[in-house]
Each structure stands twice: as structure tokens, then as C-alpha cells.
Amino acid sequence: MTTINDIAKMADVSRTTVSRALNDSGYVSEEVRNKIMAIVKETGYMPSLSAKSLRTKRSGVIGVILPKISTETSSRVVNGVNDVLSNEGFQILLTDTELNKQKEVEYIRLLKSRHVDGILILATNVNQPLLDAIQAAAIPVVCLGQKLPGVTSLAYNDYDASADMTTMLLNKGYTRLAFIGISNDDPAVGQLREQAYLDKLKERNLPVKDHWMAVGDFSIDSGYEAMKSILHTSKDDLPSAVFAVTDRMAVGAMEYLKEQGFRIPADMAIAGIGASVMSKYITPALTTIDYYNQEAGQHAARLLLGKINHEQNSEKLKLSYRLILRDSV
Amino acid sequence: MTTINDIAKMADVSRTTVSRALNDSGYVSEEVRNKIMAIVKETGYMPSLSAKSLRTKRSGVIGVILPKISTETSSRVVNGVNDVLSNEGFQILLTDTELNKQKEVEYIRLLKSRHVDGILILATNVNQPLLDAIQAAAIPVVCLGQKLPGVTSLAYNDYDASADMTTMLLNKGYTRLAFIGISNDDPAVGQLREQAYLDKLKERNLPVKDHWMAVGDFSIDSGYEAMKSILHTSKDDLPSAVFAVTDRMAVGAMEYLKEQGFRIPADMAIAGIGASVMSKYITPALTTIDYYNQEAGQHAARLLLGKINHEQNSEKLKLSYRLILRDSV
DNA sequence: CTGAAAGCGCTTACAG
DNA sequence: CTGAAAGCGCTTACAG
What is the CATH number of the domain that holds A33? Predict the structure, then answer.
């Protein structure tokens, strides 16, 4: 492989000068610069980024920690992140925790040892070891989708979004409102979205019935099973609508209802969150909430870049959302 | 940051010994090893991978070049790749060409300068600059989804898959078969899938009508527009079925047909390729072909690992597929 | 405007 | 079994 020394020899200058020409740092005469650049072009020389990183302590790489790689939300976010990062000459080092809390911590350490300039984490839960690891890493970290205490966080507006959806359903007359949530380990999706549902029902003195509530795990199947369980335990006290906190679970629920001969929304209305592509093309089209994931990814990336460049900006920002009313309600 | 020197001092040994203990290379007395390991654990020391990579010329990073990051196929493949790579201690450096041919070439050079141990590329086209760049990089490269001359390639069985789908449709009596393809720049999806369609029609002496053929660009919208154009140009010579080479385009086509009041499959049957999640939940459920993308990703990753370890294995393998018959036909 | 030298944090012959 | 030394390919004060 050609190195900076080779280029220096060929150009008959010191490698110091080559480095300066390459990085536009310090003075290099026009003549020498041209000579060097010509040789660089000719040889196709590319500086070793390992050496560069070892020396400068910057790698031009951002570590991204995903809860699950093959998910529509993740890929939209990564898309947004990549939009802004690749423009700034940064690369993404991708990491997938498979919803495993321990891996989150491991990856933070690993990314740190790879000299990444910053870490973007899509957390699904909040726990002390995670916070400790972030603290210990002592590099810029931005969390998207969850509020991590002491960490620059960009949270979706889960409470309001869920409250709006609940209110809308209630206003449409669906006062017998079932709910499919996820585990409380997840403050954003698990706690906030459920709390808003509960609060809104309470505000109107509507009953919250245990047999109208079920818990899934993000998957379509779990939505299917949750709906089945709600129907079974509710017997002749059936709800008139069901609100699932993710589109995938809503789709699963819809699938089960269809199988059972329910007409949607006449016999049972359904709503989700996420604005998945599928939500638009399924029949009936699903009422849902768009979280603008790609924009959120861009936003998070910019925030991280800001931190890397030591710009002051550690407020907890909120992201926007939009209700999409469709035929399932 | 703690370095190997700090550990060496604390353990009162040379850094050579620390390195040996860390990497299990060469002799280290049990006693010394334990002492070192205790300190490593206590300090949370992690070796700098930049330094390691500079020294050893291996980075433990695999570059992945994607045509489009936020696509179901891509995320499934990356998922599979990550399955096997993360198990072997490798990390993924992700790169998105946004279907831009020039970026493909740039990224190969960039990844090379980052000392990646190998590159996995999901090519969508074949061109000389790309082949040259791969040649010039002189590191292990595996191509998935396309046959690149001179490059270890793992191609889907596009011709046979498309031929099977065409035959199946023909056998069901849909002899007036329309086709939505993509650009011929893409040998696999563009050329092979179309060629199989043409060959099968020819075999049975069935007419191939220009106004039954349209070209899209992978997107749902383009399928919608393609279907519209077919209907308009066909006037009273309408096809009885349409075969789109991707699920997304099939979904778009279905959307347009539904809008126009077509009953599916009674008035017009539809088939796609890809086995997207959506294909299963859309109404009517879409007949399609599963390419086992995740397994393909695993397979490609293993192939690449094999090349990195200098195992002999540069044949062009073929991947399998499976027809999924559903209600849209 | 240019170069010699030191050093980033590792690993690996080589010598003992 | 252990260590001193060289070197991977860069950048950056420092000196001229």
C-alpha cells in the first residue's frame, strides 16, 4: 500500500509537507501543492484512517446503537442520521442490541474503544448500568426516543401523541376503548403512552377495565395474541375500539379481528402509532400517528455533531408528530 | 484514557506482557496473567482499536455498501450479515449509495482507507468503474444479489424465480399477462426477471404486447403509475393479470386497480416478488416470492469471512427461493 | 514556506 | 516466562 512516505519521496518533499497539502493546514506553496496533488491522484493514495485516528483522536465515525436493525422505525432513523452524517464526512458504525440490555452497555464500551467521535443510541429502556456506561465513556452521546437522565436526549412526544389519539377516539364515540401496550421497562412507549390513555379515560370518568388491556412486544404476532386475549377475557363486555401503541401490533390485532369476522370499524375500530408503510395499504387503512422518524434521525445527528464540536446545547428537545385519520376508525 | 502502558505500570510488568495476556499469545505465567486481568477489569481498560488496526492491518470491521438503507430487503440482509459478523467479533461500517453509481466507487475507496477487513456490496448494477475500484482495493469483496465478473458473487436465482411465477400465472389461465419491470441497468432485477417472462410467453407462442409492459423504479408510486399507464395504453385490449418484479410496485399497481374499481383477482390478478411483510397483510394478500434475504445475508457474510481467512471458495453460488401463493391470483 | 523529530497505542520478532 | 526496541502511518509543535 502506498503511504504518505511514498508520496513524499515521489514528490521529493517531506511527509510533513504532504500532510499539510492533504489537510490544507499550514502553508504550502502553490507549486508544491500541485505537484503533490497530482501524485496523489495518480497513485490513488488514501491516507490510513487508523493512523490518522490514532494520532488525532478523531475517527470520523459515529457509533449507532439500534434496538433492532430490521425495523421500519430503525431504518428510517438511520436513513435520516446518514443523511446529515455522510454530508459531513462521517461514517456510521452500526450496532444491534436485539433488545438486549446488556448488549447496550457492551456496545458503548466497544464503540468507545473504536475511537468513535460520538454515539447515537435509540434506547428502549432506562437503567443504571446503561447510564453508568455512558458516563464512563466520556464521549458525546445523544439518545433518541427516550429521555435519559444526564444525557442529551431527543424524545418523541409520546404522552401528547397518545393523549390526542385517545381523545380523538373518545370524541368519535368509542368510549369502550381497549388498549394494547408494551412493557413498562420502556418509559416512552410503555409508560407514557399508557399513562396518557389512562388519564384521558379518567378525565371523562370512563371505566378502565383490566380485561380491555393487554401487553405485546412490538411484533405483529403479539398484537394478534393480545387482541385474542382481550376478546376472550372480555366475553360479552366487548370494547368498541382498540388502540395499539405500535402499528405492527395494530396490524396483528386487525388480522385477528378479521379472522373472527369483525367488520372494521363498524364492529371494532383500530388505531396504531408509527405511520408504517403498511398502515397505508392495509384494508381498511389504519389510523395512526406519524412520528417523522427520518427527520428525528437528522435532528439527532445534528445534535450529536453539535456536541462533538463543543457547541452548547444540552436541552431536552421535543419532536413533533401528526395524527393520520384513515378508514380503520 | 488508560492505555496499555498504564496497565503495564500498575501491574509492574512490561507492556509486551500485557499485550500477551490480553491476546492470549505467547507465554504468560498464571500469576502475572491474573494480576493483569484483575487490573484490566478494575480499570475498565479497552485497547485502542485504531492502534491495533494500524499495527496489525486488521480492523475487525466489515464495510457494507447498500443501494438504499431504508428498504425492507436491505434491512433483512443487514440483519443476516450482522447475525454472523457480530458473533465473530466483527463490526459493520454502513454505507448508503442512494442508488448512485458514483458513490459505490467512492465508498469502496473510502472503506479501503478505513482498513476494513472486507466489503460486502449489494450491487444494483454492473459497470466497469465499479469493477476497477474493487480490483484496485485488493481486499476481500463479496457481492450479493448480482453477478460481478471476477468478484465472489452470491446471486439470487432471478431467472428461475421469474420463470416459475410466469409459468404459474400462465397455468392458472392468465395468458394475457402484463409486466412491470425496472431498468435494464440492473442485470438481475431488470434483465433476468424480464427475460424469463419473455421466454415463457414465447415458449407458448403467446403475444408479448408493448402496451402490457411498463417500467418502474422499485417504489410503490412507480408501480401505481406503471399500472395506470398500462391500463391507458391497453384500452380495450386489457391484460388479465400483472406481474410486477417487486412487491412494492405490485402494491402500487394494486392500489391503482382498486381505485379504478377492479376486483382482484377476478378482474385482474397481481403478483410480486420479495415477500415483504406488507404483501401478507394487504387485501387481497399478495402472491409473491420469498428470497430469504436474511439467510442470504448470513450466507454472504460467511463467504466474506471465508475469503478473509483465505479459505478457497470463489465459486458463484446460487440462493434459493420459494413461491408464496395467496389471494391476489 | 519547509523539514526533522517526537509521539499516538499497540504488536512482534528477537534476545535473554 | 519476560522485556527492550522497532515500527505501523499519520500529525503537530518547533525550529529554521
Answer: 1.10.260.40
